[in-house]
Write a structure and sequence with these properties.
66% helix
Length: 511
């Protein structure tokens, strides 16, 4: 009975986590990119709730069954991967503690709306901030994102009820092995929880791209035909629900390579099922391929220079990955990839090529839209506060004091997340973030084979790399919807099932 109660509680927690994940995926882009304070507060609440559910599951599992004993056969690779996860947990706590101490030990506070700096006493050898309110906002945002990451990672590593029954039945019925769709799919099988969440992400991002293209063609400057944003009033500066077109491109460039990879994997699995004469083939791959094409073309149509460059590089690299995955050497697959690339290129040429070329011609005459001057000011900020920075989330409040002249634009974002992080978090905080980020590829390299076909992790890495590159000239990580999807890909890449334990089949207390 205790095991049944434990199983029920964990299942309820998993169900709530799944519902919150789907709701957050749909909500973040359509709430104007989750750029408004009210949307950020909603997502912070969702993240904290998901973090609490994760803690509940961890406590229940520990109390019900205690820590499971690892088998003697656990490889050194598995132990090293586990150490990386522990390191990620420690680094997460350290980053949150860094933000919290900076807020509590604030050196100053920006009095809004006058933006006057009020100095406060602080301990100089501890992290501190010159904008206490901005740092508090950053702390709560980071806390919510941490809850989303760890909860999503835990949920993605689990099984659905159908998968658990199939997993428990297969070892006992060897005569039926190979007769189920799951067995026929083989290495092209996608875990059910992965498939569900990926479909929601891909179809939702596809709708964002379609809506952005239709809105651009309509010529309206109202986001979702509802409101005129406070900044970027012209229609060309916007795209879809985003007041800043580059932010929309960053979201789409994160999503569409994975959408293309998922379409390829599901198609291969469906082909195997049909050849075996079984039912249960997944027929969503055609829609996914169409969505990937539209999303790949959208950055060119949006007129974002950075988005177009990243999308062009991803088009080439995604095509290479799809061709490499073609182990059957079927000539029709490279031809199909080429056809999809040509369709995306045709959409881009038809709807935005000429105006995009005009924007590239002015890239250096306008100092990258004035970015180069702001970089000089931000480097002065970083030089004046090398170790602890000006405080997490303090850039908007402090930047006014580093403008070269009062006539210069007072920037809320630096358009260079790497430099902004170094200026606000300092070397210590920036180093913690870099170490946490480096754990993701390190885990994948050490762990080896994951839960799904290698093409899916490869396209996720490609999306992450594009976002990190775009962060050199823009601010994707200051936008909640983009940071949210970025961390979801990291959760996918670090999700695993406890195969290193001696007991392969789980009892009720271990679920």
């Amino acid at each position: 009975m205790a095991a049944d109660r434990t199983t029920t509680l964990v299942r309820w927690s998993d169900g709530l986590t799944e519902g919150l994940l789907y709701a957050a995926v749909i909500f973040t882009p359509w709430a104007f990119g989750a750029t408004q304070p009210w949307a950020v507060r909603v997502m912070t609440g969702v993240g904290i709730a998901m973090g609490c559910l994760f803690l509940v599951k961890a406590i229940v599992r520990r109390m019900a069954g205690g820590p499971r004993r690892r088998s003697q056969a656990a490889s050194a690779r598995s132990r090293a991967a586990r150490c990386i996860i522990v390191a990620m947990a420690i680094l997460t706590v350290l980053v949150l503690a860094y933000c919290l101490v900076s807020a509590l030990n604030a050196r100053g506070r920006i009095l809004r709306p006058a933006y006057r700096l009020e100095y406060k006493p602080c301990i100089s050898w501890l992290p501190h901030s010159y904008d206490q309110d901005g740092t508090w906002s950053m702390f709560w945002m980071a806390l919510g994102l941490a809850g989303i990451f760890w909860s999503a990672r835990d949920w993605l590593g689990g099984r659905t009820r159908i998968e658990e029954h199939a997993f428990a039945r297969e070892p006992l019925e060897p005569e039926t092995a190979g007769s189920s769709p799951e067995a026929v799919i083989g290495r092209y099988r996608v875990p059910e929880r992965w498939r569900r969440l990926l479909l929601v992400i891909c179809f939702n991002a596809s709708l964002v791209a379609v809506e952005g293209i239709v809105q651009r063609l309509s010529g309206t400057n109202r986001l979702l035909w509802l409101v005129v944003p406070r900044y970027n009033h012209s229609a060309e500066a916007q795209f879809g629900p985003y007041a800043y077109r580059s932010n929309a491109c960053q979201l789409l460039n994160l999503a569409w390579p994975v959408c293309a990879g998922l379409a390829w994997v599901l198609r291969r699995g469906s082909d195997r099922i049909r050849r075996a004469g079984l039912r249960g083939a997944d027929r969503t791959h055609g829609w996914l391929a169409a969505g990937a094409v539209v999303m790949a073309a959208a950055p060119f149509i949006s007129l974002s220079r950075g988005g177009a460059l990243v999308a062009a590089a991803q088009l080439v690299l995604t095509s290479v990955l799809l061709i490499l995955a073609n182990r059957r050497r079927d000539w029709r697959e490279p031809l199909g990839v080429l056809l999809l690339v040509l369709v995306a290129a045709q959409l881009a040429v038809t709807f935005g090529y000429r105006r995009l070329i005009d924007r590239f011609e002015t890239a250096f005459t306008d100092n990258l839209s004035g970015r180069l001057d702001t970089y000089v000011n931000a480097r002065e900020m970083a030089a004046d506060h090398p170790w602890f920075g000006t405080g997490p989330g303090s850039f908007e409040g402090v930047y006014q004091y580093y403008r070269g002249a009062p006539s210069e634009t007072w920037e809320a974002y630096l358009h260079n997340d790497w430099l902004e992080l170094r200026a606000t978090f300092g070397r210590i905080g920036f180093g913690l973030i870099l170490a946490l980020l480096a754990c993701v590829p390190a885990y994948g390299w050490i762990r080896g084979k994951g839960l799904a076909h290698w093409l899916l992790p490869a396209t996720m890495c490609l999306g992450l790399a594009g976002c990190l590159l775009h962060a050199r000239f823009d601010f994707p990580f200051r936008i909640y919807s983009i940071a949210f999807l970025f961390l979801l890909w990291c959760a996918f890449l670090t999700a695993h099932r406890p195969a290193e334990y001696g007991e392969t089949r789980r009892s009720g207390a271990e679920i």
